[in-house]
Fold this protein.
Amino acid sequence: MLKPITLNRYVFHSLRKLLSTWVRPTVENNSTEALGLKPGKPVVYVMHQRSLTDLLVLESACIKAGLPRPYHAIDANHPEKKSHFFLSQHEGLILQRERPEPPELLENLVSQVESQQDDIQLVPVTILWGRSPEKEQSAFKLLFDWNFSLGGRFRKFLATLLHGRQTMVYFSPALSLQEIVGDSDNVSRSVRKVNRILRVHFRQKKASVLGPDLSHRRQLVNTLIGTPKIKKAIAAEAAAQEITLVEAESKARKYANEIASDFSMPAIRFLDILLTWFWNKLYSGVKVSHVEPLKKLAQTHTVVYVPCHRSHIDYLLLSYVLFYEGLPPPHIAAGINLNMPVVGTILRKCGAFFMRRTFRGNPLYSTVFHEYMYTLTSKGFATEYFIEGGRSRTGRTLTPKTGMLSITVRSYLRDNRKPLAFVPVYIGYEKLLEMASYLGELRGEAKKKESPFDIVRTLAALRNEFGKAWITFGEAIDLNSFLDQQAPHWRDSSLPEEKPEWLIKATGNLGDLIASKINSAAVINPVNLVATALLSSPRHALGEEELIRQLDAYTRLLSMVPYSDKTTMTELDARSMVHYVEKLQLVTRQTDALGDIISMDEKTAISMTYYRNNVLHMFAIPSLISCFFVNHADIAGKDLLRICRILYPYLKAELYLQWTEEEIEAVVQQWLDCMVDEGLITCTEDNGERYYHQPDPASSEYIMLNVMSRAIMQTLERFYMVISLLLRNGSGNIEAEALEHQSGVLAQRLSIIHGLNAPEFFDKALFRSFITQLQLHGVLNITQTNKLVFDDNVQKVANQAHMLLTTEIRHSIDQTSRHGVSNSSETVASQG
């Protein structure tokens, strides 16, 4: 192959046109703005390895994007030079070897910058053919992949032939050669500095896209079995079970094979084609937000993706999006229940590793799994797991399970040379595939076991409209910074492989932080906005114009006081939202002489609570404020803030709100000011004291407040039920489990009396969480006999909740708890 600089221009451009008929690369950052190019300054492209094919692809990409061309001269001062150089020089005809010698053009450019103080803009360009992670000892890989240093021209020809349609071109932001060189007057030292910076850049870029080197699965299992910790566990297993070391090792090997993924790039490409068809059939689009910061993070950190869990297809959707965004698909922790025939093999090939629901009573399995996770994190593999443990059946973010977090942190304590970051991911759907099964489970039906035939049922569902899917990447959590706050001396641990005392509390706090950051990245789409408005109306129906006004108010308020800078909101206007949700067959339209009515039937209303719950946390504070003015004509600002401060910790714990208890008063005040500006409430001052007043009860503003208050009303009702039952039973007379049961029975009865179509209203887990928070805040204590004891603080909490509930609801709770508590207690006693 002749060097590009000696090629006739006609031959070069003929080859470029010929190559472009086969190679169709995906290109990123190919604009002047994305590269940060300064006008008037020369541009020189830098590629890692010498390759005519890469240069031809780069030339085509620059022509299409309108960028300076690499095969043209730099400027009038360098008529004989081309605007590119290769960082690595090669020698050898067939099997080429890299020669670590700085290119001549780089030395000339550095000399020019140092002598003339005239800046040059260096644009690193990474071209990856096939994006296949390296597999050690893989002959196929060595022959057909060109992304690494070993190989030659024949292998590059085959890589172009095989991977031409799976080629990625990455333009990195321009580097100022003048800034890198600085005040140095030593050309050779400056060249070495520039060379080193560029090599580090290419190494980090390759790892961020391809992932670390990937060993063959069989070799990985052999390596795991040979580690000191697993050898020790094998010996312990042999002694405990009275079996031979060979038998114990065979068990360990079986566990390792059961767990380990078998990542295969051909399988990823096959699934890419299949999923592209599937998403286009199922959804009208997949919307992705805030991915650019993630791409920068992936170059410096080991990334652990921690998404919310709404559907079985969460696994596939996130990996698909990451692959298309030029990031390596993660290794995904999947429940052993998904290791089914055919399906399990496909998932394993696409990066899934399987774990049992519990490790209890099986120390050998636990050790093998811990070592496997340590191998992934220490080698820098991106991983993914769902901290909620299972899919949310109610649409709420579930209480985090800290098992995998603990394993990850302990792995990091053993080897923290490369920083690690958790990336919360919000995954939302406008219409869920599994909704029918979720509703059945909420009605008490047994959870159906996963089966390969689920694929057939999924394909049958493709006839329906499912709207859009949304993925938002939240604010990353740097583990170093987090541990510095939680355990300042964590680096000083003499035995990092052991479980430190602070770990349980730290991982609990980490789980809560991840859950709140997932909620901060939530998407406000047309379905959950319409669901929030209609479910807050008495019969789940509103006139179309009234619904439109309500939706307009929601979007206006949420725009004025956005929940977070990671929140994404639909761009549709209110009328378009109504038509969009109607098209998804989630609402119905009736017409009479006064106009159209938009409504939901009872079954649909229950499913719509799921979509409302996706964004319920965003309405928590304005809804809480609205409750004051539905039930009271006016209230002093200091009293309103005080009550919000008392109730906020319980709302925060249930809805995973993002603000600290110290920040909440400022947030409430911000919402008060916004609601005053919108005319929903009024404000007066008397002797420097602010007083807030409800609008005219006959006004549209009062109706708006009434509707908005109902978003959080059921949460407050649950709080009041628990407090009422506590007071009814008396201090020291009831256990937490019995109180939880009584609360669920009471809620179920009230849901029938008041027609509440929200299955989570009587979810015992929510009552359990509230009782736990009362204990954490010192309102409740547990005696040695497991009885709940309390003082007058319980009555104070009851008084605050009392102010926010309607007279009808308060009376109903008080009456039902007074007459129903004994029966509930007897039920618990009989069950015990």
Summary: The two ends are 83 Å apart (CA to CA).
